[in-house]
Each structure stands twice: as structure tokens, then as C-alpha cells.
Amino acid sequence: MKSQKAIRSLQRAGGLTSYLEERRKLVEKALARSLPAASVRPTTIHKAMRYSLLASGKRLRPILTLAAAEAVGVSAKDLTKILPAACAVELIHTYSLIHDDLPCMDDDNLRRGRPTSHKVFGEGVAVLAGDALLTRAFGLIAEIKPSRRYPLSMILEETATAAGSLQLIAGQIADLEAEGKKPTLSEVRFIHERKTAAMIVLSLRLGAMTANATPRQLKALTEFGGELGLAFQIIDDILDVTQSSERLGKSAGKDLKASKATYPSVIGLEASRKEANRLTKKAHAALGVLGSGSSRIAQIAGYLLGRES
Ligand code: GRG
């Protein structure tokens, strides 16, 4: 695997750091506009929604939505039309984090460097803030101006499937049921593909579909997302073991304590690193048909492999 130093110099060379920062700012502004102001009644729910959504997330998913659109030809100045889709995936992701942190699920105190929603607002409000973010996400989907090839009904159906009982919730329930057991590698993979990769695939597909990608381009980005999503979760598993809570902005070492289904617990740290590396290479290979348009998205995959938080 490339050294951290080599990865960082690669990023600097390609201007990835400033690209990510610019896209993050664009997303942050759109997210702030996507919800009612904290002063709108009932203020508690809007404060709670904004508290979790506007905390310091990496914004990986919405950035991937924008980057997928760029990879199939949308120019930087036209990205505003992709923002409703980008924000929708971030709202769904944030809802899932709030609910995952609840005492009846992972029971966590720290998220995005802050006390979790239920610690600040109480469990009832945290449940409702998650519900309201998920619901608002579908409101944002309705704001998408669909492209010629992909009607809004298709975008809606894909979003509902990725967030529903066959994908995100399937992964979460399998994760809950695997706790304290000794899952096989294929069971861990089942969880990771649904809990994490499905939302990453959705992020890319929404960007590509809104940008009228050709079927070949959409297929390539879908394959890329599947490999990247799994690699991303394996890295997340590794960081849980190797990094501090301070660095991650969430409780580190929890997977081991809660006997969670993770790659390191099944195949060990070194084999997990190798697997994340292998999947990232496969992800890069999937981008072949996109040509030079995909260079940014390929860089993002390399960056995620080398991330430390
Ligand atoms: C409650 C329906 C439901 C699902 C929960 C999101 C989730 C599923 C569980 C949270 C714990 C976890 C390990 C999820 C896998 C996805 C993941 C790595 C989330 C963290 O994503 P980042 O690192 O977080 O992109 P930020 O805060 O930067 O957005």
C-alpha cells in the first residue's frame, strides 16, 4: 500500500484538497438552506435536525454525487442543479447516524465531534429528528430536475430501495443480529454492502442520473461505487481499531467492545488493509469507460483509502 506521505503528495499534486474543500463548502451552504431555520416552530425539531446535519461531517456522499455528475460531463458552474440530489443523500445518511447512535441501537455519546442527538435533545426528539431528515430527503428528491433518460419516478424508487429494508435497513438489522456472534466473512460482507456501500452507490447514481449519464457510464459508476463502498467500510473498521475518538469525532474501539461484525475481527488488520487496497484498485478499473472525465472521482477513491479519520 502507498505510504501516507505518498498519498498526500499525490493529492496536493492533483489539487484534490482544494477540490474537496470547494465542494464541501458548496454542499454545506445547500444543506443549511435545505431545512427550515432553527427559529421556525416547532423550534426543537428544527434545532435538532440542524444540529446533526450541520455538524462537521466529511460530506463524502454528496461530494460523490457532484463528482459523478462532473465525471459524465456537468461543468462546475452547473453543479447547482445536482445539489438537491446531493443534499438528499446527506440527509438520509445523517438520519441513519442519529438512529444508529440511539440507546436501543449502538448507544453512542459522540458523533461528528459532538454529543449525539439523543444526549442533547432526548431520545424522543432524536427519533423524530431522524424521521424528519429522512422525510425531507424525499422532498429534496422531488426538487430534482430529471434528465431525459431518467424520470423522477426512477430516482425516487432507487432512493427508497437504497434506504429501505433491502439495503440500508437490511444492513443495520443484520448488524444488530450479528452482535456478540462470530460471523463469517460473507456475513460481514453482506452487512457492509447494505449498511454502507448501498448509500455510496446511490450517491453516485443520483449524480449520474441527474446528469443524464449514458447507460454505460451509469454502469461503470455503479460498479465503482460497490467496490469503493465496501473499501470505505473496511477502512472504517480499521480506523475504529487504530485511531482515537478525538481523531474520528466518534467513539473509537466500540466495534471490538460490542463484538461487532467487522473485517479486522474476522480476517485481521493486515488482511483487511490488503482487501481495502484490492477493492480500491477494482474501483479504479471500473472507471475505464469514463475516460479522463473520471480522474477526479478516481482521486477521491485513492484519498479515501489513505484517510485517517
Ligand atoms: C439506523 C437505518 C439505520 C442505519 C444505520 C449509518 C449506520 C446504519 C450506522 C452507523 C455506523 C456505521 C459504521 C455505519 C456505516 C457507514 C459509515 C461508515 C458511516 C460513517 O460515515 P462517514 O465516515 O461519517 O462518512 P461522516 O460523519 O463524516 O458523514
Describe this entry's structure for a reader.
With 309 residues, this protein is mostly helical. Helix content is 70%, strand content 1%. The two termini are 18 Å apart. It has 16 helices and 2 strands. Strand 1 and strand 2 (114-115) form a beta hairpin. It is globular, with a radius of gyration of 18 Å. The mean pLDDT is 94. It binds geranylgeranyl diphosphate. Geranylgeranyl diphosphate binds next to helix 5, helix 9, helix 10 and helix 11.
H-E order: HHHHHEEHHHHHHHHHHH
Structural class: mainly alpha
Helix content: 55-70%
Major sheet description: 2 strands, antiparallel
State the separation between the terminal residues, measured CA to CA.
18 Å
- Uncertain ranges: none
Strand content: under 5%
Shape: globular
Q: What is bound: which ligands?
A: geranylgeranyl diphosphate
**Number of E-state strands:** 2
Average pLDDT, rounded to a whole number, is 94
Q: Please list the strands of the largest sheet in the order they lie side by side.
A: 1-2
Radius of gyration (CA) equals 18 Å
Count of helix runs: 16
Question: What is the structure about, briefly put?
Answer:
This protein has 16 helices and 2 strands. The protein is mainly α and 309 residues long. It starts with a helix and ends with a helix.
